[in-house]
Design brief:
Helices cover 47% and strands 16% of the residues. The structure holds adenosine monophosphate (AMP).
Length: 214
Amino acid sequence: MVIVLMGPPGCGKGTQARFVCQGYPFVHVSTGDLVRAEIASSSHDSIQMKSLINAGKLIPNEMVFNLIMKSLSDPSRSYLCDGFPRTLDQAVMLDAFLNESGLKVDAVVNINVPDEVILKRLSGRLSCGVCKTIFNSHFNPPVQKDTCDNCSARLERRSDDAPAVVTARLSDYHMKSVPILDYFRSKNVLFDVSGDRSSGDVFAEVEKILKKDH
Ligand code: AMP
């Protein structure tokens, strides 16, 4: 089974992905995490990736697709894609790739959050680089400043959460995501969820979608 989580940066895809993978046998495939790991490994493409990510721009399709293909390699597993596809081309590529293994996108969960809420959320986002737990200095601060409640690692602010970069990422999202939503809607696999509420309430909706007969 393949589920895609969609929504603007900061809508809570990473948090929902962790909830899903804690309760269900999905492999979490986050292209943002894959790109950040690639940058940390100083691979051949890492310099180009770093300058694009820091400018809030998308990585070229071939580079992202190389990362995705390695991650979706076992057709007997269930996958939760987070941050991919981001463009209509990527959606078509994903469908073609899955089709070769007899798979398809079974459901796309589109988490809607207004831009003004996203801007406030991302200005306070703190992420744990070790266990990936996400905190927010405004809405969900850690007990001890800058320290992960879960694994005690130091919390980090993402360089691409700077306000100017967030604005660029949001406008890119609006320009490029609508065609993907229409594409999946026409295939009857798109489910809209309001993300402007507690992560537990959002997860209750996501679970209903997972339990549907796809
Ligand atoms: P995310 O963690 O999903 O917000 O992604 C962080 C950054 O990684 C994005 O702003 C892009 O620079 C890059 N990235 C992640 N997923 C993709 C994708 N599907 N296509 C192109 N670039 C991506």
